[in-house]
């Protein structure tokens, strides 16, 4: 089989644009991206990218531009409901030493502006308003058709179109459907010039445990001019079932009531941090709600000349901040295997899945475990959790256990150490 020269990519989110940049730079393959939205989206809150993803972004030449738009927030500060800090830890001390990178929190819109500008400079075409309707292939290549009557041909196809992937639904694994995790998030972005002056100096991810979920606040811009906050909680599926109308109604209810709900939960919070939290909630003007879905593990990832990557293949809960990083690892692994194995694509896909599934499953389970602290609990259980967290973090820091890499080894993983 001759080396592939052209790839069609469905999805102009992070996975799609990053895949195009890598395949063009490293494999000298010409990418064309197709996006269902009519224009680049401005939706989304702030994304966390740990060491394993940041190292790969640096290799793509994107780190400096992203660092200039985001906030490095490697420290976790855990607060009791009363407001006081009960423990702190550097989440990336060991992995930073191994990789040279910590943890970046960046608005999704800033991330996408950097990626689309990189694609523009690389003259990678992105076609918007393209609703995928069909995929066919033969021995010569693969063809995609769109609702507007246009079509395209390529040597292979990448589905980078997220958890609700049309590539997966139409072609790769039509029977696999997303499932609700039981956790939902409310989030917002708030300029710090509307908050107490101390808010502009927040430099870490600040988490507060409550009886009804996890409240977290983090900077997401380099000079502290904006904070991202979210409230992540256990929430039952709508009584009408897993339907769009049901979730739209549930989301409307949550947006209307969540500010008063959270303010009631933190009403006993005192001191400077208590004031910052309360003012952040009060000054919030626009709230977004989204139920957290995931894909059941071990679905099919490829068919013929088509491969799905990132959330299209293995969407996991966001509680390990690995969405962008997992997509990057997928991209680099696949790119390297294309160079190392110039044979049939189905053999490259087979080796790719064999190598990627253990790592993806590891992070999938980690994200699921981290979701446990979002579940409802009693006041007594919350107090026990606060004491346990304080004790565990105290021991962790006193004995310098971060130097052993506990909890950080997955963040130092380098997908390029496994190239063949």
From TrEMBL:
<comment type="similarity">
    <text>Belongs to the paxM FAD-dependent monooxygenase family.</text>
</comment>
<keyword id="KW-0274">FAD</keyword>
<dbReference type="GO" id="GO:0004497">
    <property type="term" value="F:monooxygenase activity"/>
</dbReference>
<dbReference type="InterPro" id="IPR050493">
    <property type="entry name" value="FAD-dep_Monooxygenase_BioMet"/>
</dbReference>
<keyword id="KW-0503">Monooxygenase</keyword>
<dbReference type="GO" id="GO:0071949">
    <property type="term" value="F:FAD binding"/>
</dbReference>
<dbReference type="InterPro" id="IPR002938">
    <property type="entry name" value="FAD-bd"/>
</dbReference>
<keyword id="KW-0285">Flavoprotein</keyword>
<feature type="domain" description="FAD-binding">
    <location>
        <begin position="6"/>
        <end position="363"/>
    </location>
</feature>
<dbReference type="Pfam" id="PF01494">
    <property type="entry name" value="FAD_binding_3"/>
</dbReference>
<keyword id="KW-0560">Oxidoreductase</keyword>
<protein>
    <submittedName>
        <fullName>Salicylate hydroxylase</fullName>
    </submittedName>
</protein>
<dbReference type="InterPro" id="IPR036188">
    <property type="entry name" value="FAD/NAD-bd_sf"/>
</dbReference>
């Amino acid at each position: 089989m001759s080396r592939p020269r052209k790839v069609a990519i469905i999805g102009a989110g992070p996975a799609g644009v990053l895949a195009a940049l890598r395949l063009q730079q490293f494999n000298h393959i010409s990418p064309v991206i197709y996006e269902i939205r009519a224009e680049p989206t401005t939706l989304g809150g702030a994304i966390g990218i740990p060491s394993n993803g940041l190292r790969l972004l640096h290799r793509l030449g994107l780190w400096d531009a992203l660092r200039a738009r985001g906030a490095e927030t490697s420290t976790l500060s855990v607060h009791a409901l009363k407001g006081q800090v009960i423990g702190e830890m550097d989440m990336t001390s060991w992995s930073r030493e191994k990789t040279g990178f910590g943890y970046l929190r960046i608005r999704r819109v800033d991330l996408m502006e950097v990626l689309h500008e990189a694609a523009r400079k690389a003259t990678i075409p992105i076609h918007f308003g393209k609703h995928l309707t069909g995929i066919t292939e033969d021995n010569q290549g693969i063809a995609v058709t769109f609702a507007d009557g246009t079509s395209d041909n390529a040597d292979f196809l990448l589905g980078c179109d997220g958890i609700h992937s049309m590539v997966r639904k139409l072609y790769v694994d039509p029977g696999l459907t997303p499932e609700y995790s039981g956790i939902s998030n409310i989030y917002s972005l708030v300029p710090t010039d509307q908050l107490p002056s101390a808010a502009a100096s927040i430099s870490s991810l600040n988490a507060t445990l409550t009886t009804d979920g996890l409240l977290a606040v983090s900077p997401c811009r380099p000079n502290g001019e904006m904070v991202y906050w979210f409230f992540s909680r256990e929430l039952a599926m709508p009584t009408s079932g897993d339907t769009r109308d049901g979730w739209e109604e549930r989301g409307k209810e949550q947006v209307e009531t969540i500010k008063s709900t959270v303010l009631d939960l933190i009403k006993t919070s005192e001191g400077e941090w208590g004031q910052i939290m309360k003012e952040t909630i009060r000054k919030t003007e626009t709230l977004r709600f989204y139920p957290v879905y995931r894909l059941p593990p071990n679905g099919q990832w490829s068919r013929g000349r088509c491969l799905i990557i990132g959330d299209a293949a293995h969407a996991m809960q966001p509680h390990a901040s690995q969405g962008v990083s997992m997509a990057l690892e997928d991209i680099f692994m696949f790119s390297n295997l294309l160079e190392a194995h110039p044979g049939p694509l189905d053999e490259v896909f087979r080796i790719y899945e064999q190598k990627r599934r253990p790592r993806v499953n590891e992070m999938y389970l980690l994200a699921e475990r981290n979701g446990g602290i979002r579940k409802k609990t009693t006041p007594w259980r919350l107090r026990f959790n606060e004491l346990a967290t304080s004790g565990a973090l105290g021991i962790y820091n006193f004995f310098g256990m971060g130097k052993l890499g506990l909890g950080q080894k997955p963040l130092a993983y380098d997908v390029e150490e496994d190239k063949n």
